[in-house]
Structure formats: C-alpha cells, structure tokens
C-alpha cells in the first residue's frame, strides 16, 4: 500500500504519516505543487499511490487546484473510474462550498474535517474499498 500525504502543516503531516505508516509506505509533500509532482513521478515510475490525503488550505497551490491537476494527470495517462487514485480531502474548514468544490469540481472521493482522528481516517479509507493490513516491516 502506498500513501501520499499533502499538507502544509508539519504536525498534521506527521500525524497522518504516523497513522498510515503501519499499513504501508507513506510519502509526504508540503504543498500542492510538491504533491502534484510526487503524484506525477509515482505514475511515471509505475508505482502509483493507492490513497492521497490532501489538505485544502495551502500556499503555492491549494488542495482544490492540486486535486484538479492530479485528475488531469490521470486523464493524460488514461486512468479513469475505479482506477483513479482515492483522494481524501482534509480541511480545518467545515465549509459547504469547499465540500461541493472538492466533490463536484475535483472528483474527490471523501472529505474529513480536522482535527484528524486516527479511527475516523482509517474507517474512511476502508469505506473507499481499500483494505488496510498492517505491513510486516
């Protein structure tokens, strides 16, 4: 299992990384631009991410723009439907417009409001059809 955590807040990145680490390999990015580049590189290497957690409010490129870029990269590479990467938007905002934009403009699969809780995140990932098994590291 391979995860990408995109969040400009160090503590949030570290928390999500700690939660997901027992279940696979976790890479992190500090903003949307870095996250899109990591996503693109992983696809080119033939090692795509299974799940991406993506903060909405970030400098340089926010989560909404990053999600649209990620979906564009997938289209360019012929990835669609159930083959698309599972993206969970994470935000400190419980804002209807942000939720609407994430789902309808960016094809987000899920949305979680901070503070991030371990069981909520794990349950959300599993609700997307992703089986989480602790890796033998």
Topology:
Layout (H helix, E strand, L loop, with lengths): L1 E5 L3 H11 L4 E5 L2 H13 L6 E5 L7 H14 L9 E6 L4 H10 L4 E4 L4 H10 L10
Parallel strand pairs: 1-2, 1-3, 3-4, 4-5
Helix pairs in contact: 2-3
Describe the protein:
The modification 4-aspartylphosphate is found at residue 55. This is Two-component system response regulator. By secondary structure, the chain is α/β, with parallel strands linked by helices. The chain has one domain (2-128): Response regulator (Rossmann fold, 3-Layer(aba) Sandwich). It has helices at 10-20, 32-44, 63-76, 96-105, 118-127; strands spanning 2-6, 25-29, 51-55, 86-91, 110-113. The longest helix has 14 residues, at 63-76. The relative contact order is 0.18. The mean pLDDT is 88.
Jot down its keywords:
alpha/beta; Rossmann fold; CheY-like_superfamily; single chain; 5 strands
Q: How many structural domains in the coordinates?
A: 1
**CATH superfamily name?**
Response regulator
Tell me the strand order in the biggest sheet.
Answer: 2-1-3-4-5
How many helical stretches?
5
Please state the average pLDDT score: 88
Helix and strand element order: EHEHEHEHEH
The 3D shape can be described as globular
């Amino acid at each position: 299992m391979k995860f990408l955590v995109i969040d400009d807040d160090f503590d949030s990145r570290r928390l999500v990384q700690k939660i997901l680490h027992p279940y696979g390999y976790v890479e992190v990015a500090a903003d949307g631009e870095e996250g899109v580049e990591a996503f693109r590189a992983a696809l080119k290497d033939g090692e795509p991410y299974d799940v991406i957690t993506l903060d909405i409010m970030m400098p340089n490129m926010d989560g909404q723009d990053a999600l649209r870029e990620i979906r564009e990269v997938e289209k360019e590479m012929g990835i669609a439907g159930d083959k698309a990467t599972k993206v969970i938007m994470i935000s400190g905002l419980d804002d209807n417009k942000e939720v609407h934009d994430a789902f309808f403009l960016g094809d987000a699969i899920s949305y979680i409001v901070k503070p991030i809780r371990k069981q909520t995140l794990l349950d959300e990932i599993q609700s997307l059809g992703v089986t989480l098994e602790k890796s033998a590291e």
